[in-house]
Amino acid sequence: MSDTVAPMLSVFPSRALVDENFKVVVENLPPGSPVTLHSLHQCEDKHYWEAYGHYISNHRGTVSVTDDLSFGGTYTGKEAMGLLWSMRPVPGSREGLRLRKRNVCSPLLVNISVYRGHVVEGFREQAPLASSLTERWYMAPGVQRIEIREKGVRGTLFLPPGPGPFPGLLDIWGGGGGLVEYRSALLGSHGYASLALEYFAPGELKSSDLEFNYFETAFNIVKDHPQVMPDKVGIFGLSLGAILTLLLAAESSIIKVIGLMGRIICDGRRSPKIRLDENNYEIWRDMGLPIPDDLADKIDVGRINCPVMVVNSHDDQNWATVESSEDMAQMMRAAGNLHLLTRLYYPDAGHLIEPPYTPHFRATKFVKDKKEKVILLWGGQTKPHSDAQEDSWKKILAFLEQNLYSSPTLKAKM
After folding, report:
1. Do 198 and 317 fall within a single domain?
2. How many independent structural domains does the chain possess?
3. With the C-alpha atoms ordered 93, 186, 261, 152, is the resulting torsion angle positive or negative?
4. Residues 127-181: pLDDT tens digits?
């Protein structure tokens, strides 16, 4: 490298929401120099996550991650956000890790560095040519985080900046349990009053826990909030939360509009249909097969009278989502409400469709109950899964805006 001018690495914007793109540029390199761009994040559990790409500087001595090809690493090709979506635990990490932000009031910090040559390991033992720290936020400035302990309901409400009123969302996560706030925080940053709902602790779900009234009460807490438009409230469900979303839509007259991020899974923890793959990871998708013919054994989606969006992944190894959505479409067609259903299909994507640029998790640890932890196979391949996350998020936001906003969405700025 040049002895007169030090290489310079810049990230713009250095502070942004997690679903916003950034630009990473390295300057002052000798032309035609092989370099490695590397990202490193230490999560709240103290585990390290990294991604890297191999580049060659152009005739001006510059590398642009947005415009230039990565010739190797955790991603290849022209991938502006590859340093985020291809992150994985550093070598030697514990098996089955999953990266999830718990404290949404603080940013996800990512250190981006450039190294001499095409490096594949030992990044923390080498001195980088240049580095830059970037902040990735779920909660934009001005978004309010309000703990909810009301009428037996437990959760966290995120209110966008300003007086409102805002469209509202009930955000229901899946079978892992606990209070998961980061998606609601991001939705709050996009102009929605979003209630992240907790309905059981990790490893403690029993069928008797799923009281229908609990979810109706939570929905009404959102609807009746003074800063929420009472006729512009929907539900956003993931995994087990998708089933609960459909159940509320079909059985309750209070639901007006539904934003469903469909990942349809039940709690069948002890099903004989659970299989193991070559790594002894549990595969749950067979629990949903065959699709029942008897309407008494499934939700009567023919009764739904509001717009529904379902996101399906063809390599979902946790539930038979494609088969389930086909059956759902047949039922709605027979009932004359198929026009309300929008389906998104993603080949080679897995079960866990998260907000964009979240790393892909093909298999992670899962708490079945307090005494048993297993590794579940979620499915998906990293690049197509990441593409699915980015594409589906844009379409979900467009769907919500079309159905819940009477005026264009105003996203909070960092």
Report:
1. yes
2. 2
3. positive
4. 999 999 999 999 999 999 999 999 999 999 999 999 989 999 999 998 888 999 9
* Dihedral angle computed from the Cα positions of residues 38, 43, 49 and 51, in that order, rounded to the nearest 10 degrees: -40
316 is catalytic: yes
Q: What percent of the chain has pLDDT over 70?
A: 90
The catalytic residue among 54, 190, 351, 360 is 351
pTM of the predicted structure, to 2 decimals: 0.92
Query: Can you tell me which residue has the tokens 């310079």?
Result: 8
47 classed as catalytic: no
Residue 414 domain-assigned (yes or no): no
Domain of residue 259: give its range: 144-404
Per residue in 228-279, pLDDT (tens digit) is: 999 999 999 998 888 888 888 887 654 433 333 333 333 334 466 899 999 9
Catalytic member of 19, 267, 316, 327: 316
Residue that is last in its domain, among 117, 137, 157? 137
The end-to-end CA distance of the chain, in Å, is 35
194 catalytic? Reply is no
Given 33, 70, 189, 239, which residue is catalytic?
Answer: 239
